[in-house]
Amino acid sequence: MPHPSLQYLRMESLPSPFCPGCGNMETGSAFLRAVRDLGHEDLSAFAFVSGIGCGAWITSPHFKADTLHTTHGRAIAFATGLKLSNPKLNVVVISGDGDLAAIGGNHLIHAARRNIDMTVICSNNYIYGMTGGQVGPTTFTGDRTSTSPYGNPERPFDLARLVAAAGANYVARWTTAHPIQASRAMKTALGKKGFSFIEMVSQCPTAYGRRTKMGEPVDMIKWFKKFPVRKRGEPIEQKTPTRDGVDLGVFADRDEIEFIESMKATYAGLEV
Predict the structure, then answer these.
(1) Is the pLDDT score of 105 beyond 80?
(2) Does the residue 4 lie in any domain?
(3) Which of 52, 53, 81, 180 stands 20 to 30 A from 28 (CA)?
């Protein structure tokens, strides 16, 4: 029996650009499961935007949909223009932590602040996987990478807390070891007005696992399964992420006015 997600893909035998054991297609599969559960027979109601990096290949060229593969770090900027020009589209950005949180970090926090009606899924593998295994904004303190051979001296971003604090309506964090919970969160995000952000922690055995001695894909999946899950309503305390301290769950779920509605309310009655 064919996989139910095949109806959303360009071809059944499309070769994968990902390294063996990469978690990016698990992220894509969780998203397509959410789309299917929402009752979409195809992806004609969606437009996908990605930047540069391994995570950007999840949608382009795999999804049978309109996609924009943009310049490095500018996926959310392109997506903002797309949403403003055609508000009826379900605009979804899927890309990596280096693209969205480092080079595109400014776009990320301001899109959350404006509460633009789009869904952003960040495949976070804690490193620049495609360009040589460099230290990134989510790399843990002490991790050895190609640009931090003696250990990373910097503190990492906690992306879920960062985006929630910036004003997003919905924020959740799961891992590739939690595909059902991740898919449910993506389903919620797609149905939520305003800015939604799903941080999907993903294994990168080639760059992160090898350089930091975290092991093979199975070892990394076992590591993810040890992450604590937050309870609904539990206070969100600020803390620096560590290898043992990455908590999962929902970090924001609110219904503040989204950007286009705010613009209409602001300019209502004005002559153009």
Answers:
(1) yes
(2) no
(3) 81
Q: Tell me the two tokens of residue 10.
A: 């360009």
Contacts of 179 (CB under 8 A, 6+ apart): 26, 29, 30, 33
CB atoms under 10 Å from CB of 271, counted, come to 3
Containing domain of residue 88, as a range? 19-230+245-267
Kindly state the DSSP code that residue 246 receives in the 8-state scheme: -
Express each pLDDT in 70-93 by its tens digit: 999 999 999 999 999 999 999 999
Query: What is the token pair recorded at 258?
Result: 């989204």
Contact indicator for 110, 65 with CB cutoff of 8 Å: no
Whole-angstrom distance, CA of residue 249 vs CA of residue 228: 9
Helix ranges restricted to H, the chain:
24-37, 75-85, 97, 105-114, 159-166, 179-190, 210-212, 217-225, 259-267
Q: What is the CATH number of the domain that holds 32?
A: 3.40.50.970
6, part of any domain: no
State how many domains the chain has. 1
Q: Which two tokens stand for residue 54?
A: 């391994």
